[in-house]
């Protein structure tokens, strides 16, 4: 088993930023599995899952633009831009068929990739991810409370890791960009009705006490994506893969057939 360390990756320059990616497992002959983290995080936040997936997949983790070791650049931060960045990395690696796990913001990007059909997405897993503009209204007041100062209180380890990893740290600028991205109601934001284009076998996961995305919304998403499955995990909030790791491991292994 291997995990992301930010010691062995490379960067791809695209649209004015250097996007950091890292491969673990040394399994270039195995199916590709792309892992996309949430807002204010990095690929290291996915290690609770990457550790048991790296034996069976060619696991690729991408630090989202402005996060981890990826620079922010001068482009507007949007879910569409993160989609383009991820597709650029996969193209650089000559990967045209991929499985994707995305947490929170990463799951929104994953849905955009799967709905866009520039790549063949075999299996798609979203964890704690919204998908439509209506979801924004329910949490916009919460999002607006996140400032460079309150972030130190809400997720201190993430802020600490950001300053440890980022080559051009400016947390104030990142915070403004993330808030704008997460409240974007234009075509560059959530996939909305485009999720109907998703043909990948899809698993939607949510913690039962997740205050950022409702079960009602994700039940609706399940009806929009033909043949998808929805798992609502009890005794967990937003970061369900860390709060109920044994449950998530069993389900992911079954879904991914490992």
Kindly summarize this structure in a few lines:
The chain is of the alpha/beta class.
Describe this structure in words.
The protein has 258 residues and is α/β, with parallel strands linked by helices. It has ten helices and eight strands. Helices cover 38% and strands 19% of the residues. The longest helix has 14 residues.
Please describe the topology of this protein.
Elements: E1 10-14, E2 17-24, E3 32-36, H1 47-53, E4 58-62, H2 79-92, E5 97-103, H3 105-116, E6 120-127, H4 133-143, H5 148-154, H6 156-165, H7 171-182, E7 201-207, H8 215-224, E8 229-233, H9 240-243, H10 245-255
Parallel strand pairs: 3-4, 3-5, 5-6, 6-7, 7-8
Antiparallel strand pairs: 1-2, 2-4
Helix pairs in contact: 1-10, 2-3, 5-6
